[in-house]
Amino acid sequence: MKPGTDRSVITIETTRQDHRIAWLTALAITIHIAESVLPSPLPGVKPGLANVVTIAVLMLYGWRTAMWVSLLRVLVGSILIGTFLTPTFTLSLAGAVSSLLVLGLGGLLPGRGLGPVGYSLLAALAHMAGQFMVAYWLFIPHQGLFGLLPVLMSMAALFGLVSGLIVMAMVAKLKERTS
Amino acid sequence: MTRADLVVIGFTLALLPFLYGTFWNRQGPADAALIIDESGREFSIPLDTDQQLHIDGPRGVSILEVRDGQIRFLDSPCRGKQCIHAGWLKESGEFAACLPNRVSIAVNGSEPLYDSINF
């Protein structure tokens, strides 16, 4: 049946871009959920490997696609894990939004600009900082929370750096394959 | 890796010590000093009375000054004078020592900053 001949069937035209976003988001969600079952040494500290996908997408397809993948991952990931609209979700979203903003700003740099490592490090720091501020404003408005900030930021820097190196290797490999 | 990447890494390396310095420094005021002399003898003195203390060491006499809830090395018969440059100790947990004269001081608060911390 051709689309449009039956009124009860609505066909949504999907673009190549939509499919790409869906595939990449699925990948990010898988990593996100796999990681959520890993025990964490400190509350708020986790490797954030799903951000590898965000940064790789940023490097390969640009900021808009990265934004979709990142936000959809937070939304769908939280629904699947069962944290949708809980504090965990709020913090996750705050982190994603802050890191996306910083990634957008990073893209404005002149010259050769940032590589995967720089983007990843900035995103990790922004993610943690944004998350921390929201946690402070909404959930734990206590000065004592700031005692955790140096440790959390150190972990963010460490994991951001590692993710960045992973993305660098990944992008190099992909370019090698496609060329 | 681009130059901008290196700038970001440098920025991070500068940011982290700054964060530790800013947020891990609030130990609360000290109210007593623990002094250890050459023989390993420890004695605690309150910081609420202003006074000068003369501590004997192998090189001579180290003079400690207590004023306004703080303590410092006023003089010490050593070459480097690091102990004097350490300045006033007032935050709980601060520490200064004159190694040549084997005198050290550490200040403590009777009331810790946190009652308890748990996760």
Folded structure, characterized:
- The complex is a heterodimer of chains A (179) and B (119).
- Chain A is built from six helices and no strands.
- With 179 residues, chain A is an all-alpha fold.
- Chain A has a single domain (16-178), classed as Arp2/3 complex 21 kDa subunit ARPC3 (Orthogonal Bundle).
- In chain A, helix 1 packs across helix 3.
- Chain A is globular.
- In chain A, 35% of the residues are buried.
- The model of chain A has no long low-confidence stretch (mean pLDDT 88).
- By secondary structure, chain B is an alpha+beta fold.
- Chain B has a domain at 32-108: N-utilization substance G protein NusG, insert domain (mini-chromosome maintenance (MCM) complex, domain 2, Sandwich).
- Chain B contains two helices and seven strands, in the order H-E-E-E-E-E-H-E-E.
- In chain B, the strands form two sheets. Chain B has a four-stranded antiparallel sheet with strand order 2-1-7-6. In chain B, strands 3-4-5 form a three-stranded antiparallel sheet.
- The longest helix of chain B has 21 residues, at 3-23.
- Chain B starts with a helix and ends in an 11-residue tail after the last strand.
- The chains are: A mainly alpha (179), B alpha+beta (119).
